[in-house]
Structure formats: C-alpha cells, structure tokens
Amino acid sequence: MNKLINHMNEQLSLLQPSSIRKFDAEVSQIPGMTKLTLGEPDFNTPEHVKAAGIKAIEENYSHYAPTAGELPLREAAASFLNEKYGVQYNPESEILVTAGASEAIYAALFGILNPGEKVLIPTPIFPGYIPVTVLSRCTPIFIDTSSNQFALSPKMIQEAIAEHGASVKAVVLNYPNNPTGVTYTAAEVQALAEELEKHDLFVLSDEIYSELTYNGTHVSIAKYLPEQTLLINGVSKSHAMTGWRIGLLCGPAALIQEINKVHQFMVTTTATMAQKAALAAFKDGKNDAQVMKKEYLKRRDYVYNILQELGFTCPKPNGAFYLFAKIPEGYIQESMAFCVDLAQKNKLALIPGGSFGPGGEGYVRISYAASMETLIEAMEKLTQYISENRVTEAITQ
C-alpha cells in the first residue's frame, strides 16, 4: 500500500465508486449479456450537428473558448430555453457552458455549499448529487418519495425543513426523473415553487431530460422561481450527444459569476469544437428530440406492458427513458441480489433500485434507450427468468 494513502482527502473514505457503473462493468464481462443498464441514447448525434463539429475542426476551432462558453452558443441556448420553456436568461451573464450536466452539478453545489450545511435530496434519484455534497463536507438529507408515486410534495419539503432547520442550504430537483421517469405538471411545479419561495434555499433543478417529456410540455421551476433556481440542461439526452460533454448551468448573474470561478479552476472551458456542434443543435435542431421521443414512447409502452404481465408494478413514466419497476412478490427482493441472479442465470442486466437511494430498494431500473430488437430479446429473457425462479416465499439476501 502506498504510504501516502492515509493522507488523502478524508471525505473520499465516505464515498464508493458509482454502483451503477461498477455493476455495468461487471456484467459486461459475461458473454451474451443483454444490457438495459446505462442512460445512453442508442441514437447517433444528428447529422447536421456532426457536420458542424467536423467543420469546426477543419476550420481550426481548436483553441481555448471563453471560460463561460462561446457567446453564440450561449445566445442559442438562451433562445432555445425561452422558446421551449418560457424561461429567460441573459446569455452574457446568466448562462455557463459546462462539461456536461455532471460538471454543472459539481460546480453549482461546490459553489454554494459551506461545510456543515445540508442538502435536501428527494429519492430515488440519480446518485451523482450525493458525492458532491459529501466532498463539500455537507450532509445529504434524503426525502423518500416512494409513498407519493415518487413525486416530491410541498409537505415533504415543509417537514424536512422543520426537522433540519437553518442548516438546510439547498434542495435538488431532477425531472423528468432518473430513475423513475416521473415528472411534474405545471400546477405541481408551481406548488413546489410557492413552498420553496418561503425559504432562503438554493434550488438546483436538473432538467436534462426536459425534451423527453411525452404528454404535455415540460415546465421548468425556473419559470416560477428564477431568483432561487440554478437550472441544469444540455444536449446529452435531447440530441444524443452524451460524449460531446456540453451542459448548461443557468441562473441569476450574481450566482453564475461566483460559480464560474469553480468552473474555471476545474476545467478552464469546454472543448471548442464540441461547443460549435452544440450551437448547431440549439440553433438548427430545436426539434431533433421529436424523432427520438416518438420511438422512446413505443419502447416504453412495449416494456411497460410486458412488465405488467409479469407482475412488476411501476409508475408509467411521462419522461426520460427509464422504467422503475417493483420486483414481484415471491422473488428475491433485495435489488442487487435479484439483478445478480438475473444476470447470471439469464444474461440480462438491469440496474438495482437500491443504487438510487431510500425508496429504491426492491425495485429495478430498466433503460429503454435500446433498440426494439434488444428490448424484445430482454423481455424474453426476463419472462423466462420469472417463469423459472419463483420461490415459495419472498426472500432477502
């Protein structure tokens, strides 16, 4: 063991590598595995976006961009967000181009938190917010939403603040939600905003799946609570550009100016040619997600119906590309054990629900960001597993 290992940042001892990535890597070693694991669109980046990236390279856009991002990109992003969701941002001072939504999460939380403060995190949720909170020497306060169809309510916020008091600094929202696909109506968003407005809290709203809302139109909480909201968006899911690493962090100018310091010393700036591609996505591809969304909807309905037939229960998602399904009674109930057993016996990989925090245990997350051919194969494997592995009584292990 290296003699300096015990001199590392002590907060790192409180963290574990991503269980989602770890499980995916492990099952990927099994020959013939069908994977419905990662949130990775199976579509390719639109041709006109790729062309813009190629052109940028050919025209030698290989030098540093401004720290906050190329102004034309920020202008196009501001126009996109205004046209789609009715939120208004000054591209010169209220938008920061980040290295994907992940960096936006880190820069925002690291920029607003002081040691000892608390962050309200409704679960089940994408776990990326938790390690940033811990590394900031702060405490995540989990709000289990499973009793309310996986939706955060104003009452839940009231109760959490009443219990934890002035030490609560921020609340995280993620909708459409990963892993449940649950999202909010305009009335529900407005109700959350009215409650949050009563408190001096930052609202970190990760809306990266906003363009993948199936029925109705996505409503951003920034529309009702602009002074408290730090809005995260980007092109990863809407334009199948996960590898380009372009995200957005939007908010009041004074807040963005300070968070930009964190961003600057983390990454300096994002890749210039990727920014040129994202400009094409926001400017000329405002509806690129519609083709993907139409296909995702077909896939959602197919998988959802099969799950119902097999005895799984789950909310029918109105966004993103995940189903969060309760393991039927009579089968292994501990989610990791269930997923390991399924992978070993039938070569099908799903993500254990326990990876997503309180309220997720006993569930599995199924990503339908896969071809229909893959989904049919996966459901055949799941059907076979369910038919052959029922136990006399539910067990945990």
From TrEMBL:
InterPro entries: Aminotransferase_I/II_large (IPR004839), AspAT/PAT-like (IPR050596), NHTrfase_class1_PyrdxlP-BS (IPR004838), PyrdxlP-dep_Trfase (IPR015424), PyrdxlP-dep_Trfase_major (IPR015421), PyrdxlP-dep_Trfase_small (IPR015422). Gene3D superfamilies: Aspartate Aminotransferase, domain 1, Type I PLP-dependent aspartate aminotransferase-like (Major domain). It holds the Pfam family Aminotran_1_2. This is Aminotransferase. Transmembrane segments: none annotated. CDD domains: AAT_like. GO terms for molecular function: transaminase activity. Its EC number is 2.6.1.-. Belongs to the class-I pyridoxal-phosphate-dependent aminotransferase family. The keyword Transferase applies. Its cofactor is pyridoxal 5'-phosphate. Keywords: Aminotransferase, Pyridoxal phosphate, Transferase. Residues 33-381 form the Aminotransferase class I/classII large domain. It is an enzyme of class 2 (transferase).
